Automatic annotation (TrEMBL):
GO cellular component: GINS complex
GO terms of biological process kind: mitotic DNA replication initiation
Entries under SUPFAM superfamilies matching the protein: GINS helical bundle-like, PriA/YqbF domain
Assembly behavior: Component of the GINS complex.
Record key words, sorted: DNA replication, Nucleus
Nucleus listed as a keyword: yes
Protein name stated in the entry: DNA replication complex GINS protein PSF3
Principal cellular location given in the protein's record: nucleus
The species this protein was found in: Littorina saxatilis
C-alpha cells in the first residue's frame, strides 16, 4: 500500500462515525506501572495514582495509547465476547448469539483488537471471518426463502 493510499484510508477512518463509535468500546485492562493523577478512573479507590495490578475498563482509543510497542503502561485483555468460550459457541453456531447485544460494533471493534498483537489475535481474526461468513450465508438463505415463498420482510 502506498503512503498516499494509506493516508487516504486513515483519513476515511478518521471521519467514519462507525469507526469513532467502535473505538469508544471499553476493554478490560490491568495497570502495569504507576499512573499519577489518574486515580479517579478507579472508582473503588481514593488514591490519586493508579497502582500496578489495578484492573479497570478503558476505551479502546485510550488503551491503544497506553499499550503500544514503545510503552507498556497497561496490559489489555480480550473482552468477554472475543474469548475462547465465545469462540467455541461461534464455532458451533454463530446464529444463536445476538451479536448486537455483545456489542453493536462487534466486527469493527474485533478488527481493532487485532492491533494489540494479543497471543490469541489470530484465533480472534479467524473467528470474526467465520462468524461473518456464516451469518451472511444464514441471512442470504432467509432472504431466498422469503422471495420463493412470497413473503416480503418489512423494511
Amino acid at each position: 500500500m502506498s503512503q498516499s493510499s494509506a493516508s487516504a484510508k486513515a483519513s476515511e477512518e478518521y471521519f467514519s462515525l462507525g469507526d469513532i463509535l467502535s473505538t469508544q468500546e471499553k476493554l478490560p485492562c490491568k495497570v502495569e506501572m504507576p499512573i499519577h493523577r489518574l486515580g479517579y478512573l478507579d472508582l473503588s479507590s481514593d488514591d490519586d495514582t493508579l497502582r500496578p495490578g489495578t484492573k479497570l475498563e478503558l476505551p479502546f482509543w485510550l488503551a491503544g495509547s497506553l499499550c503500544s510497542r514503545r510503552r507498556h503502561i497497561v496490559s489489555v485483555e480480550l473482552p468477554r465476547a472475543y474469548r475462547e468460550n465465545y469462540r467455541q459457541v461461534f464455532k458451533a453456531d454463530p446464529n444463536v448469539v445476538d451479536l448486537h447485544k455483545l456489542g453493536p460494533y462487534f466486527y469493527g471493534f474485533g478488527s481493532h483488537l487485532l492491533s494489540f498483537n494479543h497471543p490469541q489475535a489470530s484465533d480472534v481474526a479467524n473467528s470474526l471471518v467465520r462468524v461473518g461468513t456464516l451469518c451472511l450465508r444464514h441471512d442470504g438463505y432467509l432472504m431466498s426463502r422469503s422471495v420463493t415463498s412470497g413473503w416480503v420482510p418489512y423494511v
